[in-house]
Amino acid sequence: MTEQERAAAVSLFEAGHGHMSAASLLGVGHQGVRNLFDRWKIHGREVLVEKRTKRRFSFEEKREIVRRYLTGEASGLELAAEYELSSRKIITKWVRIVREEGEEGLRPKPKGRPGRSSNVAQEPASELERLRAENERLRAEVAYLGKLKALRDQERQ
Q: Do residues 11 and 37 lie in contact, with contact meaning Cβ atoms separated by under 8 Å?
């Protein structure tokens, strides 16, 4: 949705239209308008202002939000407004993670490529593995030398 369509949709929400009505009046897909409508119910007109930073929640905060949601202490919409979440879908995602992986699934995951365990190459576990590694290295060397010879022959012509 364009910025103008988003502003028009918010105006329609404020006039009492639902997301389906607003989507048909604007001639846009209803799913994007529904997401905007859900966020509008939480944040009001501020939904049109882009937030620059992404808030990070600690494991304890996530666990508390999920606990309150599952016990029925508060709805997803209420919790999203209270904790200034962009959408209630974040809470349903955390609930799904807890159901599938347990509370430990809410802990932050390591990012990026895993580091090397040490600078020294790992010793092959058996003689067979050592020989296979040497064979692979020798094949690569033969292929390299063959290409080098072909390039030199090509230069001479």
A: no
For residue 66, the one-letter residue type is V
The 3-state secondary structure of 91-109 reads HHHHHHHHHHHCHHHHCCC
Which structure tokens are listed for 16?
């009492």
Q: To which H or E segment does residue 5 belong?
A: helix 3-14
Q: 115-134, pLDDT tens digit by residue?
A: 776 655 566 568 888 899 99
DSSP 8-state symbol, 44: G
For range 87-94, the mean pLDDT: 89
Q: What is the pTM of this model?
A: 0.51
CA–CA separation, 141 and 34 (whole Å): 60
Structure tokens at 4: 């103008």
**Amino acid at residue number 118:** S
List the domain boundaries for the chain: 1-50, 52-108
